[in-house]
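Sample 3 of the quickstart, ligand pyridoxal-5'-phosphate:
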Amino acid sequence: MTLHVETPLVESRTLSLSSGRSVWLKLDALQPPGSFKMRGIGHACETYRARGARRFVSSSGGNAGLAVAYAGRLLSVSVTVVVPQTTTARAVELLRQEHAEVVVHGASWQEANELAQSLVGASDAFIHPFDDPLLWQGHATMIDEVARFGLKPDAVVLSVGGGGLLCGVMEGLDRHGWGQVPVLAVETQGAASFNAAMKAGHPVELEAITSIATSLGAKRVCERAVQWSRESPIQSVLVSDTSALDACERFLADHRILVEPACGASLALAYEKAPELEPFSTILVVVCGGATATIDQIRQWSAKFR
Ligand SMILES: *Cc1c(COP(=O)(O)O)cnc(C)c1O
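Result:
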């Protein structure tokens, strides 16, 4: 038994037609807490509980915090999530719905995270949102499912925040002997920490995140993500917030699934027939999901950018 579910893998007729190639979707938006994060965080939480953890602590008001809260409820382990004052009422409500203790503290994530770290006692486990090998192991199961299905893509498209999803997908590709399959690592222009790391050759800290794709808003990617980019054919691709938002709107119409702009960024490549897709005929897009943006919010952002 795992805490995550096996998700559908479907060929998208609309995206295949609009991009002129076969586009397959790994629908991780359908994980119960709304994103792929359940895979890695579920695996990490199970492991930490087996090692004796009595409480899980997180400082994410986004999909990572939701996945920790969900895992804690299923495992009967108490969860404390410290979030900054900027966190939306909806995110706080979703966390409370999972019976997590929510502590609202500080003007920014840095301050919330500091308090969270100070709360971690000897019998608690802090659950990092992206930089933990246990998370990568869990995320890799998504590629196991693709392999079991019998589909070998000739490129994978995914979104990058702190690089946890990238590390997991690379681990999965690697263990199926698919390590040379090209990966397009997508970020929005105002959250391009992986792009900056690729240019510098090591993780660098961005001064600020200016994108509305908050789930991609890690100022610095994990070291392992940059290591993978030295060993494997990973290409960094940037899209605008407007493209990501348009993709969310179109994906909702086409597949009846609402995703965050963080996920729309990857879908935008197929919707906009990006030149980066040109060499490939069978493309796997990781539909990473995201539960924190409402359709009203997405439309408000879209209207603002027009
Ligand atoms: C966390 C998240 C990402 C980015 O994942 P990283 O592991 O931080 O790179 C992308 N999309 C969604 C919806 C997320 O929740």
